[in-house]
Design a protein that fits this description.
With 104 residues, the chain is mostly beta strands. The chain has no helices and ten strands.
């Protein structure tokens, strides 16, 4: 289970792109994978078609396991874990070390 959502800013914790930050483009909770903007770029060979008459190679993002990313906290300038709490009868995401709520 992940508390990350599409559009969140995250930092990569492991792999060749460690330390890079980017926005989440997609979250797949079943596979526990996320798609991060500008991270895990690989070459995709594209067949000739009407949309792409030239064909060739394009670079695109590939999924990263959710355990290798953390929510980016602007105030502290580092990746933090997320928790959940009930505020006013509504479930909210909170930063783990400080307990501050994230405004959705």
């Amino acid at each position: 289970m992940t508390r990350l959502k599409k559009g969140d800013r995250v930092v990569v914790l492991a792999g060749s792109d460690r330390g890079k930050t980017g926005r989440l483009l997609a979250v797949d909770p079943r596979k526990s994978q996320v798609l991060v903007e500008g991270v895990n770029m690989k070459w995709k060979h594209v067949r000739k078609s009407q949309q792409n008459p030239q064909g060739g190679r394009t670079q695109r993002e590939y999924p990263v396991h959710v355990s290798n990313v953390a929510f980016w906290d602007e105030q502290s300038g580092k990746g933090v874990r997320l928790g959940a709490s009930l505020e006013g009868g509504r479930k909210r995401r909170v930063l783990r070390p400080s307990g501050k709520s994230i405004e959705d």
